[in-house]
Amino acid sequence: xxxxxxxxxxxxxxxxxxxxxxxxxxxxxxxxxxxxxxxxxxxxxxxxxxxxxxxxxxxxxxxxxxxxxxxxxxxxxxxxxxxxxxxxxxxxxxxxxxxxxxxxxxxxxxxxxxxxxxxxxxxxxxxxxxxxxxxxxxxxxxxxxxxxxxxxxxxxxxxxxxxxxxxxxxxxxxxxxxxxxxxxxxxxxxxxxxxxxxxxxxxxxxxxxxxxxxxxxxxxxxxxxxxxxxxxxxxxxxxxxxxxxxxxxxxxxxxxxxxxxxxxxxxxxxxxxxxxxxxxxxxxxxxxxxxxxxx
Length: 295
Ligand SMILES: CC(C)(COP(=O)(O)OP(=O)(O)OC[C@H]1O[C@@H](n2cnc3c(N)ncnc32)[C@H](O)[C@@H]1OP(=O)(O)O)[C@@H](O)C(=O)NCCC(=O)NCCS
Hints:
By secondary structure, the chain is α+β, with helices and mostly antiparallel strands. The protein folds into two domains: 5-119, Gcn5-related N-acetyltransferase (GNAT) (Aminopeptidase); 149-289, 3-Layer(aba) Sandwich (Aminopeptidase). It is 33% helix and 31% strand. It binds coenzyme A (COA).
């Protein structure tokens, strides 16, 4: 096999990288999913667009965190990472299946991690791929199994929640403050990306606050709060907005966030396990359910 060239990622690499991540993640899902789960589907074209948009932004904010591997002039893998305040975040990491196990991932990860050399903390969500998890553990990250709840929400279980409202860009200072108290670093410009893709829910009550980004199905894909109660309220509000009879899911729940499992149980959703939250220099954040790539 020819030697891989590791070089900074460019705008012109985005389409190829989107295809590589979609292909490699789908291949892992197809290899590792449990029999009782629905068959995995490749990332739909609509979400490919969101991936490209997020990564294009990373090329601007974190050019030194974004790397690709080339073999014979063709992009075969990439690693995209960000630094937000004192936190290093790995957003995407993939090598085309036919080029895996040749040490390309090791070189890409080393290049991306160098971007975070001054950070106190590191955080990212890992797939269930044993090769990826091996790389992460050997790089010194602690591994925290992630659970998810999925199913049709029992409408009769939805409580009345008070003081939850739709949020907007005017809430970003509040969101950053909640981020600092929960995960130890603000999302900063990543909130603009999240606001562009998802509905924002905000809850402010007494001395506590929480927010959730919710996708078009009603699935909360990032929940952060300064109290478990407010975090549960925004999670309920998201689940309550799902179409009756349609299935919704909340991914990336660590054992430190039993409050989110309790909401899923009360909604009569089922609990499963997939992948890991990988951390360095910190404990699993709580009350916090992270986004898959922006954490
Ligand atoms: C994770 C990934 C990027 C690593 O790329 P790569 O080029 O294969 O990485 P490397 O060859 O440097 O390292 C892979 C390591 O895992 C090992 N490995 C691979 N499959 C394995 C398995 N089933 N069980 C145990 N170890 C395994 C390899 O032997 C190698 O370890 P070694 O160097 O100590 O021998 C690539 O496998 C991939 O794209 N996976 C699918 C997408 C994915 O899950 N990405 C991570 C998202 S968080």
